[in-house]
Structures are given as C-alpha cells and as structure tokens.
Amino acid sequence: MFEFTLDATCGPARAGTLVLPHGTVETPAFMPVGTQGTVRTLSPADLHAVGAELVLANTYHLHVRPGEGVVARLGGLHRFMSWDRPLLTDSGGFQVFSLEGFRRVDDDGVEFQSHVDGGRRHLTPERATEIQWTLGADIAMAFDHVVPGGADEATARDAMERTLRWLGRCAKRHAELKERWTDGKMERSFPRSNVPSVPQTLWPILQGGTHLALREEGLRRICDLDSWTGLAIGGLSVGEPKPLMYEMLASLEPRLPPAGPRYLMGVGFPEDLVAATERGIDLFDCVAPTRNGRNGSAFTPDGPVNIRNAEHREDARPLDATCDCETCTTFSRGYLRHLFVAEELLGLRLLSLHNVRFLIRLAAAMRAAIRAGTFPRWAAEWRHRYTRSD
Amino acid sequence: MFEFTLDATCGPARAGTLVLPHGTVETPAFMPVGTQGTVRTLSPADLHAVGAELVLANTYHLHVRPGEGVVARLGGLHRFMSWDRPLLTDSGGFQVFSLEGFRRVDDDGVEFQSHVDGGRRHLTPERATEIQWTLGADIAMAFDHVVPGGADEATARDAMERTLRWLGRCAKRHAELKERWTDGKMERSFPRSNVPSVPQTLWPILQGGTHLALREEGLRRICDLDSWTGLAIGGLSVGEPKPLMYEMLASLEPRLPPAGPRYLMGVGFPEDLVAATERGIDLFDCVAPTRNGRNGSAFTPDGPVNIRNAEHREDARPLDATCDCETCTTFSRGYLRHLFVAEELLGLRLLSLHNVRFLIRLAAAMRAAIRAGTFPRWAAEWRHRYTRSD
C-alpha cells in the first residue's frame, strides 16, 4: 500500500502509478479541491464522470464546520462526501496562514480566529494530525508554516525551521495513532470507521519561500528524517513571479527523492501543470477550475474563453470541440452564455465540470506523451496552441 | 398527434396518456418549470433521471432574454436547452401581470417594462403566439389577462372577457402560422427548425377569478369557440384561500370537456396535486420543488423537512427513505445539512432534484392508484401520513 511505481520517464517528466487504500491514481494527476467536503457545484457522480481519481479536502474548514467529530460519526470523510476513491486532506497550515483575521504563532502551534463564528481556535501539529486521522483520508499532510511569496530569507528560514520541527511532531503523533490502530487499541475518540485494512499515510511539506538554498537544506533534512511515501512542495504559487517558481522547481528536481510522488500544492492553471510536469512534478491541486468556472471562464486548448462575451451569443459550437464532458457534448456556447447572463446556477456547474475535466484530460495527455517518449514535442505544441492569440 | 387517451378513471380522478410531437406524457403529470430555458440547478440529464416527461418554459422570460430569435438561430427551444422530450411554453400573460414594474393594458395587448433592461415592450395575442411558434414547444398557451386572487367580479369579468377575445386572436394567428408551415410557405422569420413532422398545438386558458358563474360561462364560451386538444385553468393559486380553489375545481369538474387533458397552472405543492387530481385535473406545474429546494425545504411522505434544522446535524438517514433519487440514495441528512449551512451550491441542486422527483413519483403513485381503482383510499392514507405531525 502507498506504493508508487514509475511507469516511464521522459527527461525529468514522469508517468507513475500510486496505489492508495481507496484506489489507484495514475500520474501526472490533477486533484479537484473539495474544500468543505464537496468540490464546489459537483456531485460525486460528476467527479466520477470527469475521471477524478483523487480529491482534496481541507482539514481547517472541516474542523471548523461541521467538526471532525460530526464527520466521524457520519462514517468518516469518504462516507460523509459519498466519495469512494482516494482522498487527501490538507493539514490546515495554508488556511490558518492565508485566511483573514487574528492569528498568533509560537512553537507550540497557531492560535487563530474561526472564519465561521469568530471564536478562538488552536491548532498544533499533533491536533492537525489527529483531526486528519479522524477524517480518515488516504493521505494526510504535515502541519506547516506558510509565508507569503515575497518573504525575506530570515522570515522564510524561521518558518522552514518551524515546519521541520512540526514535521517531527506530526510524524510522532501519526505513528502513535497508527500503532494503536494496528494493535486494536484505538481510542474511541479517534475512530477510523471508513478505512479498509491499511491506515493513512503522512506526507511532509517542503517550505523555504523563494530561497533556493533554504529549499535545498529543507529537502535534505526532510529526507534525513524518514523515508516518506510522498513529498509535497508548499509555499509556491503564493504571489511570487511564475518564472521564479519554474526556476525553483527545475533546481530542486535533481535533488528530489525519486521513490515517491512529488505534489506541488495549489497549482494550478493548465500552463502551470505542463511547466511543472516538465520539471518532474506528479500531483497537482487547485481551485482554479471551479473558481474560474463559476466566474464564466473556461479552459480550452486555444486558451481561456470568457463565456459571458457577446461573441458567444449565437454560437452553436461547443465550448471545447475536443472535449468529451457533459457540457461540451450537450450544450452550445450560446446556451452556456445565456445561463451566465441570466444568472442560472446550472451554468456554474457546467463550466466547473468542463474545467475539471480539462485538467484531468490534460494530465492524461501528458502521461501518454511521457510514456510515448514524445513529451518535449507534445509540450511545445500544446503551449504553442494554448498561448497563440488568434 | 396531440391525442389524449383516458386509460382509467376513479371517480373524477383520471389516468391518461398524452401523445406529443416529442414524446408521450402519462397523466397525472407534474411539469418542472424551466423559466429561463433551464429548470433551476438541474441539467437535462437530471431531468431524465427524475423521470420528467414534459417541461415548461416561459415565453416572457425567453423573449426578454436571450430573445426568441437567438433561440431559433440556436436550433429552437428543444435544441437550445438540449431537452429532447415534450415542452410547453407559457404565454407570458401571467408574468406580464405578476412581475413588478410598469404595465398598461388595452384591448390590443399589454405594454410593460422588461425586468432585465427596464425597456418598454409590447405583447399582443398575435406576438405571444408568434414568439411561441418561433420557440417551437409542443404546446403553446393562449395569451391571457390574469387578475389577483381577491379581484371583485367586475374586474374578473373584464379580464375574462379580454382573455376570451385574445383567445380568438391567438387561435387565428396560430392557424395562419400552421397553415403556412404545412404549405411549406413559412416565413423565414418564423423558423421551426427543431420540430419533427407535426406543428405545435395551442391551449386556451380559463380565467374568471374566484367567481364560479364567471368560470362556468368562460368555460362554455371557450368550448364553443373550437375543439381544443387541451385546456388550462389559470388564475388560481394566486393568493385566494386553498379551500376556495378546491371548491372551484370541484364545481367546474363535471363541466370540463372529457376529451383533452386539464392543466391547472402554477400548482403546486404535494397536497395540492392530490386534491386537484381528486377533482379531475391531469397536469400541473410549479416552481415550488426547485424554489423550496434552494431554501433547504424538502418534500417527504411525512411532510416537509427543513434540512437546515440542527436535529439533522448527525443524522445518517437519507432525506426520504422511500425515494430512489440520487440525493436520497447517496447522501445522509447530516451531509445535506452541512452543504446548506456551509452555503455549498451542491446542496441547492440535490434538494431541487429530490423535490422534483418527489412530485413526479407522487403523480405516478396517483396514476397507479387510479388504474387500480383504489385512489380514494390511497389519497386518504397519503394525506394522513403527509399531514400527521409527529
């Protein structure tokens, strides 16, 4: 369980297979984001239809509402969401540091204000680990300290050092929970009602801002700590220039352990998926497809389309003629535009559905090109078409 | 085409089959309302899944936005909405008289203010008929003058007389359009690109407020004018007490022509469907299932449930254990409550889907009881369970 097999490589780009308790994920893979235990506007049947193999949910949001106890008593996160395939929970670190409102960080953890009721809450590495254990996703993430994209080296080092110390505490608590669970001595307060025969795995998150030396040091120290089943790169795509992110990934790539999948958190847009896959990344998540979809912006092979534009008024063509999703095989651009102009909720769902399908098909196309050994040419052609302005 | 067969009766209650150009409708039947060419939050696949056989769209709304010309150039209303089963368009009379803003009625028609851009528009019986012909639904409705539930007899008579004069003009224009279409001489401005071999039919609307003598006179004069393929009762469920509506239906029932389906417009709630079917009604439409669904209110055999209530917080049971819809076979009440409390759009769709399925299953259950000759007992038991407060 949690085995990752490299099926093919093409330069730094990799095609792999990750086996998880709830199913198998073929990489490169895009994970739709179900922040509050639902991928906005999409049902589990929709997610199956678009070929999602792994879905992300947020520990912070589910802890604040409805509470991990409620989720557990309703059968755990899989049963709660009615999602039978693999799940990953973010640790809450990113949310605690990016949402508005009061927060106080010390070495113990973070005190912050709930965005729902304004009440004070406290998260520590141990609590974040326990909450994720209770939710019962296939993959849990370590609790991390995220700094803004432009943070100076001292700030970034401070957060990286803290994230490393916290990683040790997450791993310790996770090992204890796993041991008690394996021994059948699991406390009643940490049920894992929905998981088959193997407990969840924990992945570390590499921080270090945009300071390459820090990132390299952090990576070394993470790998020294344990042999992980996967590794995430956090704190990128948080406001820094895109070329800087690409440079960082290219420099880190030769130093990344080849054994597990590499997950670039919070990325991204179609062009970012291609650029990061070229730099050895295997897993992605981002709210862009659903958020942009709700704003009327659709991904197509010829670049983004704003469906509200007047030019689509009487356009009988599908949104994306190459796409096999329900939206593109059923409706005209003219009808989709009407739904947005008339503020009909169906439009939000149809564009979200297409955008998620677009990224999942993009990942599948990259995988095919990597296996065929033609990825560099494929990527050049894809980029040419996507960025060409007609 | 447009043939209505009575399959069984049980007292005044009827089970029938209506054949329309785009398919067959078994009655009693509930029509979901797709005001702007979409049943709010539901896709055509959802409507198929819940067993909808006939969908209503609004002439007023589609005329104002996107305009019937746009709909026609995108292939007509069926293709526009991607709905391949029967459609009915309301004439716009109800909307013109019930929406806010300026309006001026004279015998020619109604001048009113568009709710979209505030611009002055003009609808006449001829225009309403032409617009509906252009949209291309299976059934078009005559343009009518609706008065509020409490209107006095003079006001109600005035509107009824006008509605009758307008009916003659609608029928004349409809016959002209149909003749030209049959002769292959249809003007380019009235395409019917999406219809098979038979043009649409036109149904009259009976008005008369809550004044029974007026209603009886109106009914006589409508039946004298032509032999219609169906007949609608309008101007009920517009603010008058429910017992008054039931009384009106019971008194009218023996005088209704037995040949075509009887459509009670804008009704309704589950208890209204049962009460009106007991009084000889065959067809219904109402926004209640989708509007209430979006507000968190769900129909169940034990009466309405407000899913936001705290009692559902950890309730693992389905919304309606007797229901076969996606919502009830997939999700717990606890999860549905979470979606509403967290303001997730998926919740709006899931409750709308269930509520529409509930009314369609209710109509099917009534049909079965009518065919079995057990409808009075069935209705008494249904009502007992639905209204019993536990």
Strand tally of chain A: 18
The CATH top-level class label of the largest domain in chain A: Alpha Beta
User: How confident overall, as mean pLDDT of chain A?
Assistant: 94
Number of domains of chain A: 2
The helix content of chain A is 40-55%
Kindly report the CATH topology of the largest domain in chain A.
TIM Barrel
- Chains forming the largest contact: A-B, 39 and 39 residues
How many individual helices of chain A? 15
Spatially, the strands of the biggest sheet of chain A line up as 4-16-15-14-13
Structural Rg of chain A: 21 Å
Separation of the first and last Cα atoms of chain A: 48 Å
Structural class of chain A: alpha/beta
Regions of chain A with pLDDT < 50 over 5+ consecutive residues? Answer: none
Give the overall shape of chain A, derived from the CA principal axes: globular
How would you characterize the largest beta sheet of chain A?
Answer: 5 strands, parallel
Relevant CATH superfamily of the largest domain in chain A:
Queuine tRNA-ribosyltransferase-like
